[in-house]
């Protein structure tokens, strides 16, 4: 079961007259965060390249998701704990995005800038969600 896929958001993004990359930004932020927190599968073929790209921020969040994760979040990409967290908390992540001041100033989450400033603004909220998940016995 795929957790999220940019293709699921393309119609909305096109209806909003936004670039197709807007369908990927929230996925890219989540995957970059998961990469930084060590939640990728050890068996992921391009894991080392993804870690390097994140450390050096060689692309945008949407580009990161497209290049290393085919613009989707699939269970095979994540570690066991990454899958448990994503399974339990991904829907909540999408809700929490609305609390991020940078996101809240836009009409939709698709309109946020596709840059690392967006990632940096969202990370504390993801960290909080992850800490709450771990403190609550790995359940939200």
Could you explain the architecture of this structure?
This is DUF7832 domain-containing protein. It holds the Pfam family DUF7832. It is globular, with a radius of gyration of 14 Å. The chain contains seven helices and two strands. The chain has one domain. Helix 2 packs across helix 7 and helix 5 packs across helix 7. A two-stranded antiparallel ribbon has the order 1-2.
Percentage of residues in strands: under 5%
Mean of the pLDDT scores?
95
The separation of the N and C termini measures 20 Å
Number of helices: 7
Organism: Gordonia insulae
Protein name: DUF7832 domain-containing protein
Topology:
Blueprint: E1 4-5, H1 10-15, H2 25-36, H3 47-56, H4 61-69, E2 72-73, H5 80-96, H6 101-104, H7 116-135
Antiparallel strand pairs: 1-2
Name the descriptors.
mainly alpha, single chain, DUF7832, DUF7832 domain-containing protein, 7 helices, 140 residues, globular, two-stranded antiparallel ribbon
How would you summarize this macromolecular structure in one to three sentences?
The protein is mostly helical. It contains 7 helices and 2 strands.
């Amino acid at each position: 079961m795929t957790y999220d896929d940019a293709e699921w958001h393309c119609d909305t993004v096109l209806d909003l007259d936004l670039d197709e990359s807007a369908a990927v930004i929230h996925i890219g932020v989540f995957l970059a965060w998961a990469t930084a927190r060590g939640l990728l599968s050890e068996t992921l073929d391009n894991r080392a390249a993804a870690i390097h790209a994140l450390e050096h921020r060689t692309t945008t969040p949407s580009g990161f998701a497209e290049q290393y994760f085919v613009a989707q979040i699939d269970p095979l990409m994540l570690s066991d704990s990454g899958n448990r967290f994503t399974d339990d908390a991904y829907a909540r992540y999408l809700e929490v995005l609305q609390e991020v001041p940078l996101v809240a100033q836009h009409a939709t989450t698709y309109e946020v800038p596709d840059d690392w400033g967006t990632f940096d603004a969202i990370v504390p909220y993801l960290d909080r969600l992850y800490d709450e998940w771990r403190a609550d016995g790995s359940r939200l």
